[in-house]
């Protein structure tokens, strides 16, 4: 007889009040396989994984490990059963070192009063080495979002687990770092570890996984071997309808007049960055983690550092001292850290959308007028197809895709001339991605300057009319038309890439 599945969930149900999050969900994980779990935001994936990890308790159904029924009543119980979970949301302790974060659970189980020491630093460096060059001694809060994600993955790799759950682990990673992770995953699977891999990225699912389970509306839709499916099969099962195009048509006519021009933008993290952004086009900014992409955008908008250089908007030179000056001029920035910097999760949707310029919704004596605030939220929300019962609802109650739309609506409320978007579709499902891409193209066509920073190469290739590639804090080159390929982007992104003046045609 063949061995039973490593993990098996049957007829699992879970409700939150009147909301049925899971309706007889099921999942089977074999030892040594990488099993993709796909579905739109709200399909029930996270609820099911939180049940496996003991964070939530099911209302009904059965969980078996090695064919034996188990009850997982806490994350500690899940760890004892050999279950490791890398959550999509980063949960590091910002004020302690990377090494202490990585080995926190082991230290807690050991009962030792103190953490740290040379041995801990050396062990952390060994775990991090296959993933990234990160100093294990620095406080975790000083790392970028992408580096923090790699530390979360390193934490999971130190656990003696037989079942590893990875929830959107590459959302903050570039292609180069993601490939390192995939190699580690294949090595773990070869040792008999079963991996549940949650991702919205079809290229990752089809390039890495053995089987895929699709969920929709809290239910199991289908489970198949990857070799027997196409990406379109998976996407259509996820959304329950045909999704013809993830990316809208690109610009066919020559771009219009120059909207934004930047010359010699320089600070400690990047140097001599010069580029222009023209009407009608979507300009991409690509590169490896740590190359300086986000730093350039945050330096330009005066959110970090004191960048030198010159900036023109519609031909007029600007004096930008801080982000308030940028907003007043019409240049705004969407952070890659949506929940940390993009939205106020505990505030209503209407308050979030009004946050950048309260004067637009103020009445007499500068007091916020609730009617104006609501009307603004309804108007902009409708233009973005924001799905929410009421502008009074908290942003935390929305799906990832709709939270991202609120973050974008906050920028649109000030009627910007240029929007710099850092990872605009990170952590959102395939349907919401298509909607956001269409929104960005519509904004570009309406005359708003759009610059997109993305670690997802298919997004840069499918969405952008031009792509600037950053390497080691400098622009290594520019790609246009058919030259926008994965190979060309990675060639320019590599250390020691082409000079800034060299353009691939």
Feature tags:
single chain; alpha/beta; globular; six-stranded mixed beta sheet
How is this structure best described in words?
With 505 residues, the protein is of the alpha/beta class. Helix content is 33%, strand content 24%. The chain is built from 18 helices and 21 strands. The protein has helices at 45-52, 75-80, 98-102, 104-110, 118-128, 145-157, 175-190, 202-208, 231-239, 293-300, 323-329, 338-342, 349-354, 370-383, 400-412, 430-445, 457-463, 486-493; strands spanning 7-16, 19-29, 34-38, 60-65, 68-69, 83-86, 163-167, 194-198, 211-216, 219-225, 258-267, 270-278, 282-287, 308-313, 316-317, 331-334, 418-422, 449-453, 466-471, 474-480, 503-504. The chain has a seven-stranded mixed beta sheet with strand order 16-17-18-13-19-20-21, with helices on both faces. A six-stranded mixed beta sheet has the order 6-7-8-3-9-10, sandwiched between helices. The protein has a four-stranded antiparallel beta sheet with strand order 2-1-4-5, covered by helices on one side. The longest helix has 16 residues, at 175-190. The termini are far apart. Residues 498-505 have low confidence and may be disordered.
